[in-house]
Design brief:
Number of helices: 8
Number of strands: 5
Strand content: 5-15%
Helix content: 40-55%
CATH architecture of the largest domain: 3-Layer(aba) Sandwich
Strand order of the largest sheet: 2-3-4-1-5
Oligomer: single chain
Radius of gyration: 20 Å
Mean pLDDT: 85
CATH superfamily of the largest domain: P-loop containing nucleotide triphosphate hydrolases
Largest sheet: 5 strands, parallel
Structural class: alpha/beta
Order of helices and strands: HEHEHHEHEEHHH
CATH class of the largest domain: Alpha Beta
Length: about 180
């Protein structure tokens, strides 16, 4: 995977002693899951759940204490909890309003855990009376890759360095077009 600028924001979130559960918003196919999966490698324990899977929805909607739920999350993936940091990634959270509401309890009762929830259709939930844990979550938005991220992804580090030094996007496009023209000839 190529370097996305949002990774530095995620790393800052991880360093914050008073971190809140993070809701990562963004359109479909912008790389939310890929970014969080890469970020998850920085944790001793990384648990991924996709709420498009009915078994994951049932798990998060169980009426049990949060500590028991955390134990069930590890068990459902066949993982033993190691000492150290834990990231729980809940993908497609818009599929469970109960799980959205549960985010507040991760903040209040288990601040030792890092929780990221992602979804591409979260804005649609405003119309259907879903209770968002206002003040107990943080939001970040992931946009499609920028021109500079694109340059890094295709290995045009010479242009990337120039761009970081003040090269405009328009000039970068002209340089890239010249390089492509030379390849095509």
């Amino acid at each position: 995977m190529f370097k996305r600028k949002i990774l530095s924001k995620l790393e800052a979130w991880k360093q914050d002693e008073r971190h809140k559960p993070l809701i990562l918003r963004g359109a479909r196919q912008v790389g939310k899951t890929t970014v969080v999966n890469e970020f998850g490698s920085q944790f001793d324990n990384y648990l991924y759940f996709n709420l498009e899977m009915s078994e994951s929805v049932r798990l998060f909607e169980m009426d049990i204490p949060l500590n028991d739920l955390v134990n069930m999350l590890f068990a459902s993936l066949g993982k033993l909890q190691k000492e150290g940091s834990t990231l729980i990634f809940i993908d497609e959270i818009q599929n469970s309003s109960k799980t959205i509401a549960l985010l507040r309890y991760f903040y209040e009762q288990r601040p030792d855990l890092y929780v990221i929830a992602a979804g591409s259709l979260l804005e649609n939930l405003v119309d259907i009376n879903v209770s968002f844990p206002v003040g107990r979550v943080m939001y970040l938005a992931l946009r499609p890759c920028s021109f500079f991220e694109f340059l890094g992804a295709i290995g045009k580090n010479n242009l990337l360095i120039r761009a970081q030094g003040g090269l405009s996007v328009a000039d970068g496009c002209r340089c890239l077009t010249k390089e492509l023209d030379m390849i095509a000839c």
